[in-house]
Structure formats: structure tokens, C-alpha cells
């Protein structure tokens, strides 16, 4: 009996995969997406401009209407719930100076920051702010385990990413240029006049602002590196400003430079970095790069919308709320094809959808790690990938997470709500099926 | 693999594929799909992986830009020593032709001596951005849409492809495998198990049975792979010939690849990443460790394969090499060209390709490209006509493979 049932089960899968060569099927449908579901505008907004709804959120959003919903999301002025504050109060890295943290083990700091990322996305009262914080943390990615970055990254996430998540893009870049974590991660603390280190200069242009096709040359990278030479991190063994970014005149190349055709006169000293900031932050290439990335992350491929976002960025001088407004108002965000949920999207949407109580501790983080997206651990400066193709080939850890959550098998996490239909109309009514379904992989 | 080695394998590892698969395929009455693929292949007495229709390729990508000049050192070039007052490697294992091997790569030397290791120095792509991501994309796409390996696999698809035909030992599928037949990203075989009882499996079978979107296709492939791996036992795999794999990272990845090759589950392409080789600062602090990891893992893999190394093509590449001159942080910045290491698959040992030398650097101070990465790959794939996978490329690397 056991054998024949098993054989039958295998037969089901085998028939599905075996009636035509899989490769042939795939070759014809490599880019195929599921048919757009009849997601309401409000549901799409909750999923894209946040991390999905909690039970009852959709009904409330519908009552509010799309316009008012977007306005509320953009305002992002709701007080944070007590539950979140309490949970975050236990995270060392959010409550201690970088230097004090050096007494704490790196593993504990990282564990805390990873928990904080999930807790904020899950319980934060301002979903769009959390969504944009995730976006910018990827955009200005820092690999937390590198050297002292573990101690500095908490400050970076507060002062660079979260402080500006819905604020000003140029202000965010300026803060990033003064972030010990970024200066250390991209080696600018080793950039001096004798031998410029190009690492930060290159990524500042390529990833943070203008984009790789932004029209700068290798020569520009080298000139920007000269401009940024001398900016380093104060030794943690000195008494004043230890661990802070500061400028060392003797290490700075004070000769004349030319960046993107603009002359930066000799003798500029620490003003050189500000000149670079002025040249690149609101450059048309930067507008295009940021617009392209925002649209790709929140809508997918939508050239007409991208043009609007680009214009909004330039018109507002990089105000982030004004820049993303056209995305929230677009018909593409509602009518366009679904987007694949990255592991973090999936986990948070599941936690919200089941109204789970979670400490976002090691047991939950282990699932994110197996799925491939532990927060702040992408080693390269481009941040976790966005494209479906990068992620969709690893389904097993997603299913195992769905099963574990639905059966309360994750230590420190328990679900409080078991009816998917209160979150998503037309869902599978059974919780495990809903979370493991093909449909739940998309948003 | 002849009948004797097949029996030998079965006796060494009691739960190995050869015995269990047969039993299971009988139980299952020769079900369709993957199980069918597996059992039909296993039924053949000469089911050696070296005799699969295409020679399996194992690609190891050194992410971050490996400093090839400190790996295969140009010991006769004064410019090298002048440009690297601190970082130049002074003691090397002579390889001839004016090069020496970094001592950290010593585990590879026996293969060089036996004529089993080919080196093409100064390999690179046409990308001049010196951006990791652009350079990787250029190399992994190889001049057309999608990945070069995906295009190759699409062009050589058998009638009943194995769901384990192409795997990446990674969390995220690398670009070279995207846009073609389905490939699986798995960080480990050891924990490739579905939670829950059979009812969960049945639920998934139902939900993923239909549909051609990326998720459903990947879902079906995963279900079929679970069936295959169900009959294998990675923990019971015993390397041969005294091979000792490093326990973590690349070593563990290659150990699992060896297991899949031996289990004869239709593996044709395996992609592994190693790194990060981005040695901007304090290079001597971690470059030797990276080299030792690479050499240790490769040497164990080649040793394990033994005589069957000839049936498996191993390619090691990086997106670019590094600047000839060292920087202020005792590291090196992004350059253009780095060596490719070729092991197995009938490679002709020794140096191949053009060496542009260090006396004629490009305007930035980088070693010029001697050989296009696509020519190396076209040779490794034994393509009659390289342009079938790499549009516009006509040249292979002369004499690299016999």
C-alpha cells in the first residue's frame, strides 16, 4: 500500500515534468510569468509599497481607497507599536556607540541587526518607510562581517539609510560618504595620494549614483579616487572622535583634478569630496540609474514609468517621496505582471499574513540563510539581486519554511492567525498550501 | 567506469546509487520522469559518467577579480618586481617559460608535472569598465543574451533531460546558467530534504503540476530532484584514491559534485563560486588563504576522480585580474586579465595562449588581454564552431585540448 501510494505520487510529478522535455518547455517560456491575478490596486500597493498585509489590512485599505492609502504610506508618521519598541530594545547594536560595541561579539551584533531588519519590516507602523529602508540598504550595500564594519554598520543603517529612506537622496549619499562602515567596506581608509585606492570611487559612481552606463570613464574613476583621498576612519585607539570618518590633509592629493569634464582646482582639500558629491548626486545619469532601479524593484519592466520617475527625481532635486510618487500612482504597479518575492519578502509577508509573534531570532534567521538572503551578508557592493531568475531556482528552502511556519516549528515564532482568506482573496484556504503555493511566491 | 569499478563502488558505499536505484526502480515499476531517467541509465553496465553524451563541465568562478600575477608569477619580468615592492612573490615553484607557481598553489603542482594542468595566462573579456559586475556579466554572458553555459545546454538538450543536468553550488543562480534549460541552485546536497510527511509532498505535486512560469517549472524540477537525491546518501560518499577534501566551501562543493558524477544522475554542468578575491587592501593577509583553499579543493577533486579526470572538464576563471602596481593599502586595484586554469577533460598540460608581457601595459597600467575568455570556453566545450555558443567568435585556443 505504502509503495503504491508513493509510486503514484511520484507518477504525478513525473507525468507533469515528463510529458515534454522540460528543457524545451523552459526554452519556450523562460520569461513566462504567471497570469496576472485579479489583485486589487490596494493589495498590490500593500505588497509592493510594504511587505504585504496583515489579517484585515486589505479590508481597511479598501475602505480607505488607493489614493488615501498611498498618502498615508508616504506620510509615514504613525507611531511605532509598543511591541516593536520592546523587541528592538534588546538589540545592542541599536543602542550603543560603535566603539562600545567592540566589547560585544560580532556574531551577537549581526544576530541583532538581522533580527531588527525582520522585526521592523514585520511590525513597523510605516510599511513604505520599511520597504524603502530595505531598498536603500541594498543600494548602499555593506557586507557586515568585513573587519570592523560589523561595529559600524548599525550606525550606517540608522544615520544613512533609515534617516533618509523617504528623505533626500543627495543627503543620503552625503551621509554615506561620512559613514565609517562605507569608508571601511570600500577601502577608502586606504586611499591616499601616493597610491589612490579606487574601490570606493568606482562604486560611488557605478552603483550609488550614475550607473555603469552613466558616461564616466576609467580616468574619471581615478580622478574621483584622488578627490576622495585622505578620508579615513579615526583610529579606535585615539581618544577623540575614534571610529569616526575624518579627513587627513597629508594623505590627500591636493593637485588639480578633472571629473566628468569639470575642473576641480588644486588646493581644495576636503572640499574636493563635496565637489564630487555636487557633480554626481543630481546628474541626469544618476536620475536614470535610480529611476531604473526603483521601477525594476517595485514594478518590473516599465520604460514609460521609468521616464516619469526620472523626471520626478530631477524636478524634486532627488526628494525620494516625490520620486516614488509616480510609481505608487501608476497603472503599471497594479496592472503589470507579478514580481517574484525574494526570500526576505517571502518571510516577512508570511509573518505578517499569519500575524505571527516572532523574536526574529536564530531559528527564523536560519531559514533566511538557507533561502540565500541573510540581511547584510551579501559580500559584493551591488546588494542582493532583484531578478527572478536569480532566486526562482531554489524552491525547496521556501517550501520548508512554509511548512515550518504553518506547523509552528520555528523556535521563537508562533502564528496567531490561520485564515489566508483574510489576507488575500482567492488564496488557498489551507495555511500550509497558501504559504507553499506557486501564487505566494509572487507579489 | 567498467563493471568492476561499478561493483567496487557498490561494495564501498552500501547505500550508493547503483544498488538502491535498481531496487527502487523495480519498486516503482519504472516510473516516468527523473526516476525513469535514473534507472534507465543505471541499467547500463557501462554507465560511466565519462561516457555520458556530453563531457561534464565543472566551472569554478573566482569572484572578485583574482590577482593572477601573484598566482602564476612572471618571474623574469623586472616590471613585476619594480611595481610590487611589497607584494611581489619572490619564492615560487618554477613552471618554465618564465613563470613560477605561488607556493600556496603547491597542491596543483603534481598535476602540472603530470601534464594534466593547462594554464592560459592573461585571459579576459572585452569589458573595459573594470566593474566587477560588468566584467562578470560580460564573461558569463559571453557576448549574447543569457548565460553561455545555458546556451550550450539548450543547444545540446537530450530528449529526456535530467533535472540535475545543471546545478550551481550557490544560493543564487549565476548568470552563466540563466536563460536556458532549468538549472538548480543548491547550497548543499546534505540538507536537500523536504519537511513534513507525504501529504505535504502530495500537496506540492498537485499545486506545481501545471503551468510554465518560472516558479512552477522550478518547482517541478525540485520535486524531481528530491526523488533523485532521495536514493543517494551524500554522507556515505567516500572519496577515492586518498583524496581529502577541505571540509567547507569549495571543497565541500566539489565533494558533492564528485558524488553526483559517480552517482550517474545526468549531471552535465556544475558551477561553483569561490572568493571573494577582491584584494584591494592587505592582500598578503588573505590572498594566500584563498589560493590554498582553491588548490586544496581542486587537488582533492582531481585526485578523487583519478583516471576519470579525463572525462570531466574543469575550468577556473576570474572576471578580471588586478593592476600590476600595488596600491597604498598593500593591495591591488581592478585590472583586466587573469589566468584560467584547466584541469581534466583531456586538456594538454602546460602554458597556452599569448602572454602580452608587462613591458607593454595598457594606459591604466594593466596587463593586456592575451586570450578572450570565450575562446578558452569554446575550447573547453570542444565546440566545432565557437560561434554556435559565442556569436562572432571563431578562434579557439590552439592545442589546448587534444
Question: What attributes characterize this protein structure?
Answer:
heterodimer; A: 443 residues; two-stranded antiparallel sheet; 6 strands; B: 402 residues; alpha/beta; Alkaline Phosphatase, subunit A; 3 domains; 12 strands
Provide structural commentary:
The complex is a heterodimer of chains A (443) and B (402). Chain A is mostly helical and 443 residues long. Chain A is built from 24 helices and six strands. Among the domains of chain A are: 284-335; 338-443, no CATH class. A two-stranded antiparallel sheet of chain A has the order 1-2. Chain A starts with a helix and ends in a 7-residue tail after the last helix. Chain B has 402 residues and is of the alpha/beta class. In chain B, 33% of the residues lie in helices and 13% in strands. Chain B has helices at 3-12, 17-27, 33-42, 78-83, 109-113, 132-141, 148-155, 198-207, 214-230, 249-263, 283-305, 373-380; strands at residues 57-62, 72-74, 93-96, 99-101, 117-124, 166-169, 184-185, 269-274, 313-318, 338-344, 350-352, 371-372. In chain B, a hairpin with a 2-residue loop joins β3 and β4 (99-101). In chain B, α8 runs antiparallel to α9 (214-230) and α10 runs parallel beside α11. Chain B starts with a helix and ends in a 22-residue tail after the last helix.
Chains forming the largest contact: A-B, 75 and 90 residues
CATH topology of the largest domain in chain B: Alkaline Phosphatase, subunit A
Count, helices of chain A: 24
Number of helices of chain B: 12
Note poorly predicted spans of chain B.
1-52
| β-strand amount of chain B | 5-15%
pLDDT below 50 for ≥5 consecutive residues: which ranges of chain A?
A: 1-32
- In quaternary terms, these chains amount to heterodimer
How is the main sheet of chain B built? 9 strands, mixed
Radius of gyration of chain A: 23 Å
Spatial order of the strands forming the largest sheet of chain A: 1-2
Tell me the number of structural domains of chain B: 3
- Please write the CATH class name of the largest domain in chain B: Alpha Beta
Amino acid at each position: 500500500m505504502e509503495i503504491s501510494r508513493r509510486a503514484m505520487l511520484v507518477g504525478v510529478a513525473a507525468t507533469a515534468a515528463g510529458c515534454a522535455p522540460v528543457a524545451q518547455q523552459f526554452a519556450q517560456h523562460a520569461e513566462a510569468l504567471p497570469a496576472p491575478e485579479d489583485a486589487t490596486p490596494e493589495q498590490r500597493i500593500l505588497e509592493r509599497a510594504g511587505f504585504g498585509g496583515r489579517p484585515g489590512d486589505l479590508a481597511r485599505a479598501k475602505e480607505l481607497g488607493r489614493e488615501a492609502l498611498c498618502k498615508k504610506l508616504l506620510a509615514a508618521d504613525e507611531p511605532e507599536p509598543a511591541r516593536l519598541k520592546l523587541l528592538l530594545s534588546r538589540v545592542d547594536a541599536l543602542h550603543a556607540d560603535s566603539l562600545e560595541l567592540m566589547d560585544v561579539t560580532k556574531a551577537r551584533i549581526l544576530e541583532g541587526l538581522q533580527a531588527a531588519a525582520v522585526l521592523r519590516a514585520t511590525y513597523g507602523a510605516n510599511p513604505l518607510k520599511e520597504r524603502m529602508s530595505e531598498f536603500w540598504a541594498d543600494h548602499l550595500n555593506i557586507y557586515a562581517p568585513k573587519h570592523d564594519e560589523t561595529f559600524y554598520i548599525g550606525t550606517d543603517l540608522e544615520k544613512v539609510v533609515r534617516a533618509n529612506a523617504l528623505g533626500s537622496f543627495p543627503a543620503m549619499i552625503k551621509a554615506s560618504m561620512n559613514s565609517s562602515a562605507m569608508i571601511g567596506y570600500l577601502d577608502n581608509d586606504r586611499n591616499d595620494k601616493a597610491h589612490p585606492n579606487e574601490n570606493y570611487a568606482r562604486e560611488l559612481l557605478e552603483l550609488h549614483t550614475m550607473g555603469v552606463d552613466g558616461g564616466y570613464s576609467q580616468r574619471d574613476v581615478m580622478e574621483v579616487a584622488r578627490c576622495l583621498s585622505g578620508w579615513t576612519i579615526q583610529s579606535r585607539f585615539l581618544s577623540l572622535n575614534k571610529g569616526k570618518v575624518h579627513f587627513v590633509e597629508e594623505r590627500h592629493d591636493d593637485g588639480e583634478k578633472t571629473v566628468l569634464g569639470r575642473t576641480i582646482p588644486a588646493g581644495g582639500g576636503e572640499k574636493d569630496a563635496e565637489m564630487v558629491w555636487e557633480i554626481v548626486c543630481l546628474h541626469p545619469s544618476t536620475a536614470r540609474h535610480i529611476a531604473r532601479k526603483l521601477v525594476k524593484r517595485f514594478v518590473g519592466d516599465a520604460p514609460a514609468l521609468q521616464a516619469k520617475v526620472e523626471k520626478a527625481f530631477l524636478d524634486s532635486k532627488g526628494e525620494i517621496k516625490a520620486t516614488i510618487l509616480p510609481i505608487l500612482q501608476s497603472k503599471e504597479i497594479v496592472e503589470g505582471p507579478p514580481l517574484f518575492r525574494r526570500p526576505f519578502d517571502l518571510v516577512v509577508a508570511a509573518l505578517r499574513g499569519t500575524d505571527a509573534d516572532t523574536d526574529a531570532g536564530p531559528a527564523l534567521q536560519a531559514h533566511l540563510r538557507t533561502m540565500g538572503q541573510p540581511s547584510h551578508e551579501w559580500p559584493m557592493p551591488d546588494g542582493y539581486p532583484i531578478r527572478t531568475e536569480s532566486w526562482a531556482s531554489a524552491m525547496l528552502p521556501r517550501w520548508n519554511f512554509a511548512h515550518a511556519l504553518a506547523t509552528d516549528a520555528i523556535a521563537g515564532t508562533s502564528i496567531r492567525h490561520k485564515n489566508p482568506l483574510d489576507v488575500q482573496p482567492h488564496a488557498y484556504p489551507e495555511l500550509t498550501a497558501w504559504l507553499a503555493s506557486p501564487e505566494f511566491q509572487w507579489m | 567506469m567498467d563493471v568492476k569499478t561499478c561493483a567496487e563502488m557498490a561494495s564501498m558505499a552500501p547505500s550508493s546509487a547503483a544498488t538502491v536505484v535498481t531496487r527502487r526502480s523495480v519498486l516503482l515499476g519504472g516510473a516516468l520522469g527523473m526516476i525513469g531517467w535514473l534507472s534507465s541509465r543505471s541499467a547500463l553496465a557501462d554507465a560511466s559518467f565519462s561516457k555520458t553524451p556530453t563531457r561534464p563541465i565543472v566551472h569554478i568562478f573566482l569572484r572578485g577579480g583574482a590577482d593572477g600575477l601573484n598566482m602564476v608569477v612572471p618571474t623574469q619580468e623586472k616590471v613585476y618586481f619594480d611595481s610590487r615592492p611589497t607584494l611581489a612573490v619572490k619564492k615560487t615553484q618554477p613552471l618554465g617559460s618564465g613563470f613560477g607557481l605561488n607556493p600556496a598553489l603547491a597542491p596543483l603542482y603534481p598535476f602540472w608535472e603530470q601534464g594534466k594542468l593547462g594554464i592560459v595566462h592573461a585571459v579576459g573579456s572585452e569589458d573595459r569598465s573594470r566593474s566587477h559586475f560588468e566584467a562578470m556579466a560580460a564573461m558569463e554572458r559571453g557576448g549574447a543574451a543569457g548565460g553561455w553555459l545555458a546556451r550550450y545546454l539548450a543547444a545540446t538538450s537530450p530528449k529526456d533531460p535530467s533535472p540535475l543536468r545543471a546545478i550551481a553550488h550557490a544560493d543564487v543562480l549565476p548568470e552563466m546558467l540563466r536563460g536556458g534549460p532549468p538549472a538548480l541552485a543548491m547550497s548543499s546536497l546534505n540538507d536537500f530534504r523536504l519537511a513534513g510527511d507525504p501529504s505535504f509532498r502530495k500537496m506540492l505535486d498537485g499545486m506545481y503540476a501545471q503551468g510554465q512560469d518560472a516558479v512552477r517549472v522550478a518547482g517541478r524540477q525540485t520535486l524531481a530532484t528530491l526523488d533523485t537525491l532521495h536514493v543517494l546518501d551524500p554522507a556515505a560518499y567516500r572519496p577515492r584514491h586518498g583524496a581529502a577534501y577541505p571540509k567547507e566551501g569549495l571543497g565541500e562543493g566539489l565533494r558533492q559534485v564528485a558524488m553526483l558524477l559517480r552517482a550517474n544522475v545526468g549531471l552535465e554542468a556544475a558551477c561553483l563560486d569561490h572568493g571573494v578575491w577582491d584584494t584591494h587592501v592587505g592582500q598578503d593577509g588573505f590572498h594566500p588563504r584563498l589560493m590554498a583553499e582553491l588548490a586544496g579543493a581542486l587537488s582533492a577533486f582531481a585526485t578523487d576522480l583519478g583516471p576519470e579526470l579525463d572525462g570531466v572538464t574543469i575550468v577556473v576563471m576570474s572576471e578580471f585580474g588586478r593592476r600590476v602596481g600595488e596600491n597604498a593599502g598593500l593591495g591591488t586595484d581592478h585590472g583586466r586579465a587573469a589566468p584560467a586554469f584547466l584541469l581534466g577533460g583531456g586538456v594538454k598540460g602546460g602554458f597556452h595562449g599569448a602572454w602580452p608581457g608587462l613591458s607593454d601595459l595598457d594606459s591604466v597600467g594593466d596587463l593586456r588581454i592575451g586570450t578572450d575568455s570565450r575562446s578558452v570556453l569554446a575550447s573547453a566545450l570542444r565546440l566545432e564552431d565557437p560561434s554556435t555558443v559565442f556569436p562572432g567568435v571563431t578562434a579557439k585556443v590552439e592545442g589546448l585540448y587534444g
